[in-house]
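The freezer alarm interrupted the setup, so I double-checked each line after restarting. Inputs confirmed:
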Amino acid sequence: MVKAETISEPPVAVWSPLVDLSDRPLLDAIQGGDDALARAARRVISALDDPDGIISAFQSFTS
Amino acid sequence: MTVLSVGGAAATLRQAQRAAAPWPYAELDPERLRAAGWRPTPIRDLILKIHQRCNLACDYCYVYESTDQTWRDRPAVMADEIWQAAVDNLARHATTHGLRRVQVILHGGEPLLFRLDRIERLVGHLRARMPEGTETRVGMQTNGVLLTRPVVSRLVDLRIAVGVSVDGTAEDHDRHRRTHAGRGSFAAVARALDLLREPANRPAYAGILTTVSPDTDPVRTFETLSAFEPPMIDFLLPHANWGEPPTHARPGATPYADWLIAVFDRWYGRSEPVRIRLFDDILALLLGGASGSEQVGLSPAGMLVVESDGALEQVDALKSAYPGAAATGLDVRRDELDAVFDDAGVAARQLGPQALSGACLSCPVVRVCGGGHYAHRYRPGEGFLNPSVYCDDMRRLIDHVSARVAADLQRAAASEKR
Ligand code: SF4
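Predicted 3D structure, all chains:
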């Protein structure tokens, strides 16, 4: 069994997103276009209140 | 079924799961996880296997061709009492957890074999039972063969959005997706997609689901699918694991990544490109967001399957690992949906980095890859605490996308400074 004290967040390799959420100016700068990257930036910004996301089984309703 | 036989069946199931997948079944304890702070993610997606049989006989089908053959013992058609219990159970779950949105996905086999009059009753019951304040969406995953004009019109009326499985060009599609008599199904599916593209029918058009196949031409596949103007394309890696590696896997080669990269390069940078779920997810993850699909990222899984006999299971993809891999031993008529959170297999899919192997935890792209699809991590006799069997492909794909995006961001940052 996993011991309670061992299940805190394990160390994950040092990695930071290409744009951190804290780097809003850059996200804002790229979100104005009509390409996939701009769309992704808009999606990230609009999901700021639900940053973790939930896996969904069906493609149509997730952005 | 007596209490004794239910208990006996559950014990046998647990024993089999512990033997086949010690991680998580012998090593994760949901109770201890909770005591240590894990908070289960409520179920948002309920997948109803309303019809267990199919009018096609695709050679790679993960339901009929996988190691798990439990569909044979289940009723072909989901009885009214099962779908009613499922809907009522979901409504209670939505109320308990104050869910703002749920979706029910009608699945099979081929869900349209269930018949539209039954589907209509099911959807009516669903919309009537869901609590006020919970948005309820209904989807359907179909092979498209039965999508005639009257059927599509009724789906529009019922506000059901359909995802259609297509393999690409007519030739590639018909090589795998055949009727029981051996005839290809592309012509019928193309007719269905043409109907769904009509403006009046577009609300019922969710997208296209396509399995990646390195023996096909990626660009021709992508262009064929794009011509159907789907709202989204969902490219899936074929189900495989360390016991049954992908058909095209070779040491030192990344045929699945190469295929996807060819599509990505054709797609990326276009103006208003069709949405491709895998690429959109990778881009969002690279920008610090989260994923909504099973193939990448570390988001918790919030979906559950109700089989036609009422069994509550995890998603079908797990059936490609070993017989019983998706089972929880629970029944939608007897057990609340919350009971699944006592299942180590369900918990494992909600733990994010805690469910990753050491190799993944030290991997530079882990936040994007997330160890890949959970089903692809399976190694017989060990379980799921492994990198994906597609590890090399995932790494190559993510590195490629990341490099393209980084170049664009540098350009954006430079123009910001000017
Ligand atoms: S690329 Fe491989 S090692 Fe890295 S997170 Fe993905 S599966 Fe794990």
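Quick read of the result. Residues 1-8 of chain A have pLDDT under 50 and may be disordered.
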